[in-house]
Amino acid sequence: QVQLQESGPGLVKPSETLSLTCTVSGGSVSSGSYYWSWIRQPPGEGLEWIGYIYYSGSTYYNPSLKSRVTISVDTSKNQFSLKLSSVTAADTAVYYCARVNRGSGWFRGPNWFDPWGQGTLVTVSS
Amino acid sequence: QSVLTQPPSVSGAPGQRVTISCTGSSSNIGAGYDVHWYQQLPGTAPKLLIYANSNRPSGVPDRFSGSKSGTSASLAISGLQAEDEADYYCQSYDSSLSGVVFGGGTKLTVL
Question: Does A85 have pLDDT greater than 90?
Answer without folding.
Answer: yes
